[in-house]
Automatic annotation (TrEMBL):
Protein origin, superkingdom: Bacteria
Native source organism of the sequence: Methylobacterium variabile
Segments forming domain Tc1-like transposase DDE: 2-38
First and last residue of the signal peptide: none
Protein name per the record: Transposase
Pfam family, one: DDE_3
GO molecular function: nucleic acid binding
Gene3D superfamilies: Ribonuclease H-like superfamily/Ribonuclease H
InterPro entries: RNaseH_sf, Tc1-like_DDE_dom
Amino acid sequence: VTLVRLPAYSPELNPVERIWLYLRERFLSARVFPDYKAILDACCSAWNALTAEPERIRSIANFKYIARVNA
């Protein structure tokens, strides 16, 4: 048995976590989906709307402390 130490979970250091939070709050919250396909369609639509705004992605995911952690 080999023990593999995993890093601590730090969602604040993961830009993708911030992007998913934005998508949930802006496009996916307070909705009831009738089926799995509707969920996928809503997620794809939200993702496409976000990718049309590269500056918004930068503002959501680009934090100064991330650059310091990666240095």
